[in-house]
Design goal:
alpha+beta; single chain; 19 strands; 7 helices; globular; 2 domains; about 35% strand; Fumarylacetoacetate hydrolase, domain 2
């Protein structure tokens, strides 16, 4: 089961991807005002299956995608893969010991990533900062959490990062991570019961520039050093999530250190069991 948010003539709407995976069904006639109403339901799967569609189905190629988020907070975890530990340590000698220690520590690195207005959906635009010179996408399996802190779904996340800013001083992490159009989410949410087992979830990153592939990398969730449930338990400690939350779980695919994104690059992030999130890079 796949749920999405789309733009219609009446405004944003909750939608379900049809079983043929070629069309989208607008669920606005069911009285849904938000995805949160579904995601926090005790009967999520049954409710999502039985909601009536508003009108004729919409072909996938005609859909205007919105990020599949309402008013939830977006959080992220860092240094959850060995490769991300190495990449963080490459950013600067000053921060190397911090990232080396957190990789093996009981407490993970968690940070606030974005508000919904800073998120961009499938086929939308993501931004590189004007005051940064080393910018990369970070492809991440993203957990969709209910208001009870349960993992109810998964989506594709792009945790855009300005590595030179963070490398200059770890205290600059919020500025390296949180800004306009800093987070990609989509194209839709795969409900938890429809995902492959975690040892079979591959993550793939491809960057296109001038119609040529300038970077390709891949990893898998099996390469994570931490359990997903453990990350969630740390997030919800003394931290209520009244509307649920989205949680990016870290990256195991990092472009080589000389590489930086450029305007008009196209970034494709594919995750098994979900699909492909495609974004165009812009700069103010």
């Amino acid at each position: 089961m796949f749920l999405a948010k789309i733009q219609t003539k009446r405004g944003p709407a909750v939608a379900r991807i049809a079983n043929n995976f070629a069309t989208v069904l607008d669920l606005s006639s069911a009285g849904l005002q938000s995805l949160s109403q579904l995601l926090s339901s005790d009967q999520l799967v049954e409710l999502a299956h039985n909601l009536p569609a508003a009108a004729a189905s919409i072909p996938l190629e005609n859909v205007q995608w919105l990020p599949p988020i309402d008013d939830q907070e977006v959080w992220a975890a860092g240094v959850t893969y060995k490769r991300s530990q190495t990449a963080r340590m490459e950013e600067s000698e000053a921060s190397a010991s911090c990232y080396d220690r957190v990789y093996t520590a009981a407490r993970p690195e968690l940070f606030f990533k974005a508000t919904p207005n800073r998120c961009t959906g499938h086929l939308g635009k993501l931004r590189i900062r004007t005051d940064a010179t080393w910018n990369v996408p970070e492809p991440e399996l993203t957990l969709v959490l209910s208001n009870r802190g349960e993992i109810v779904g998964y989506t594709v996340g792009n945790d855009m990062s300005s590595r030179d800013i963070e490398g200059d001083n770890p205290l600059y992490l919020p500025q390296a991570k949180v800004y306009n159009q800093c987070c990609g989410l989509g194209p839709w949410i795969t409900l938890a019961d429809a995902m492959p087992t975690r040892d079979k979830i591959g993550i793939f990153l491809k960057i296109i520039r001038n119609n040529e592939t300038v970077f390709f990398g891949e990893t898998s969730v099996s390469q994570m050093a931490r359990q997903l449930e453990d990350l969630v338990q740390w997030l919800i400690r003394d931290n209520d999530l009244p509307n649920g939350a989205f949680m990016l779980t870290g990256t195991g695919v990092v472009p080589d250190s000389p590489f930086t994104l450029a305007k008009e690059d196209t970034v494709h992030i594919s995750i098994d069991g979900i699909g492909t999130l495609t974004s165009t890079i812009v700069q103010a």
